[in-house]
Amino acid sequence: MEVAEITSGDYGKPTWCINCAAYTQVDKAEVEKDKAMAVNGLAPGYIGRACSMAGIKLLHVSTDFVFDGESESPYTEDQHPNPIGVYGRSKRQGEEAVMASGAHSLICRTSWLYGPHGNSFPRTMIKAWEAGKQLRVVSDQIGTPTYTRDLARVLVDMIVKDPEPGFYHAAGPDIVSWHEFAVDAIRIHAQQVIGSDESIKVTPITTADWPTPAKRPKYSALSFEKTAALGIQPMRHLPAALADFVKRQAATGR
Ligand SMILES: NC(=O)c1ccc[n+]([C@@H]2O[C@H](COP(=O)([O-])OP(=O)(O)OC[C@H]3O[C@@H](n4cnc5c(N)ncnc54)[C@H](OP(=O)(O)O)[C@@H]3O)[C@@H](O)[C@H]2O)c1
To answer: How far apart are the first and last CA of the chain?
Structure first.
């Protein structure tokens, strides 16, 4: 969307602008640096300036990948970002651009998104399991899976609360590895959709066993405490959120 459209009146005069747009291909960003920086690093600043001039408040979505993964407890908003890849650096640049734009802004960092629309990690795992593939999944990267329907609710709650500008974390309450996330998703799918209680075989592997172009934080769980202190309810626990995800996937035949 052209930034000017936000303020031109084409959509009426919004009170808030929510910027979810991003270049999100973490590995490809390592070779498409300029594109990632333009979309994630520069564009949020243009949006912020347009919002500032029009008196529109801005909710900007950012990521756990702004952190280096060296923490051993959930990242709070006041911890120092230190991204380790192009995607994370581009998103961090976008955060700084929003903060410098003069807009009244909430920067909401989230993590490990999955939802009923589009591709997602649990969907890929379930499809691979259904196809009878041997699954090997990384067990030494830890994070907080976040269900998009719950994130949407929290973002609306944030707008309703309209707290002071700054950084807020919005992620699910459970801290798991990709391996645990895969097993949970497949188990719930097997129980709910095919009525099977069979044990789920997914082989845990290390990051070194699964090399990728982009380095990823080994621990990127986000703390929800500051956001909860606004009076916003935490998101559902992983089993309940995955149960809803599986139900909606099954209903759409995806
Ligand atoms: N996925 C995750 O696990 C995760 C984790 C933490 C944070 N986040 C953040 O959450 C937000 C949403 O991520 P997502 O995973 O839902 O991403 P997504 O599915 O890739 O969606 C990104 C959206 O951005 C739009 N977009 C990309 N480049 C654009 C451009 N140049 N101009 C206008 N629109 C553009 C895309 O439009 P088209 O569909 O038309 O291409 C798409 O609708 C992002 O800010 C991301 O950094 C994601």
So the answer is: 28
